[in-house]
TrEMBL record:
Domain Enoyl reductase (ER): 12-324
PANTHER family cross-referenced by the UniProt entry: QUINONE OXIDOREDUCTASE PIG3 (PTHR48106:SF18), QUINONE OXIDOREDUCTASE PIG3-RELATED (PTHR48106)
A Pfam family the protein falls into: ADH_N
Gene3D superfamilies: Medium-chain alcohol dehydrogenases, catalytic domain (3.90.180.10), NAD(P)-binding Rossmann-like Domain (3.40.50.720)
Key word NADP present: yes
Keywords: NADP, Oxidoreductase
Coiled-coil ranges per UniProt: none
Entry's transmembrane regions: none
UniProt-recorded name of the protein: NADPH:quinone reductase
Species this protein is from: Kribbella antibiotica
Amino acid sequence: MAMDMRAIVLDGPVEPEELRVRRVPVPEPQSGWVRVKVEAFGLNRSEYHVREGLAAGVTFPIIPGIEAVGTIDSAPGGEFAEGQRVAAMMGGMGRQYDGGYAEYVVVPASSITPATTDLDWATFGALPEMLQTAHGSLFTGLAIEPGQSILIRGGTSSVGMAAAAIAKEHGLTVFSTTRNPDRVGVLKEHGVDHPIVDDGNVAEKVREIQENGVHAALELIGTNVLPDTLKALAVHGTACFTGMLSDNWTIPDFYPMDYLPNGVRLTAYSGQSHDLPAEAFQRYVDLVAAGKLPIRIDRVFAMEEIGAAHRIMADGKAVGKLVVTVN
């Protein structure tokens, strides 16, 4: 076991180009925690917020990263077998304690989800947080049912594309938005029934296709577009607020009678690893491996390219997931 490892460490807010790989001691797991030898990790908006200094409750220095995949390197409590392939996600990773942007990460055993798969590390590394957020938003936040229709606002984000794939596989009609007309074809290729170019009047475009509105809406952009998203819903329809790609988090002077259309419901989702049960995660992994759940990876980076990866994320240039392979 090496005494030190490569990691990306934040000493405070920095620009993407200032991110660097450095050598730090390999962390030791205590009882109830496990050490994972990291093979790949996905990039998430959460790490953008940490890097920008926008995340509440984060103490620097910190190794960011709310997810990682790899193999069990040490499990003092015997919860998992050495060499077992696993995903680690959430539970305070990259915020309350060091996260997945490293060759090794130590996390609570409760943050580990095992999976049996021959997927390459980059593809497997794209899945954990993306699937957890999409699955939780759809089934906990929106309680989707086959035969319904859903609007996904922020459709070319990694979660947006995963949510579209899962909703389609579950038997829903999918509306999904992009601000870039050049990305309409990508949405169609990934199973979206009604791609919509977002010009700020999405509700009007939805109702031109489905006059009474959609049953469900997944909000991934932010509160700046939420009123328009709510207007796209049918009576008794539900919107789930999950993402803030625009960095608009709050609703000033919230007056429900004015803000919410008559009979429309608003909920939210911000889940943890246990919101994606191991059996559901395994099922999705198997569907991806079989080519039955289309997941889009925009680009795969080496660890030393972390600055370029974060620049693409910051500029909103990715269509799908950005992944870093460690070895």
